[in-house]
Amino acid sequence: MKKANIVCAIIGMLISGSAFMYTFGFKKFKNVPVGPEVFPRALSIALFICCAILLVQNIILLLKNPVETEKAPTISPRDKGIQKALLGLLIIVAFAILWNFLGFLIVTPLTLFAMIRLLGKKTYIMNAIVSVGATVLIFFVFKLLLGITMPLGFMENLF
Length: 159
Fold this sequence. Notes:
By secondary structure, the protein is mainly α. It has helices spanning 2-22, 38-64, 80-102, 104-118, 124-145. The chain is 68% helix and 0% strand. Helix 3 (80-102) packs antiparallel against helix 4 (104-118). The N and C termini lie far apart (54 Å).
């Protein structure tokens, strides 16, 4: 298990470093104190720190006790949790693909509804109300308060 954690920590550090470097290519805006790169940089730094802690802890454990006592668990596509995670990933990928074509106001409530159902809430009416309500709230917060336009797809001329 310690060796698996060390490998995962190194992979996570490489991913966070790549993400951090990618943020330097983001577009710069004049007179904007906090640009679009700040949040991804903060997340990549946090990921790097967490992976570094995981790496150090497991190296110390490996030095104290070099014999592996337990095996790392395997990931099986038959596991219900893995199936839900893969379905959630598929939903997010579909959201990203359809975002520009159908627009925020159509894709977001469908995605929210699907994710709420995936998490186990079975009340369809409440799920629909929450999905539509959250979408409308997010849309108006971004449009009116932040002045950021969301892609509307084929409804671009309506708003």
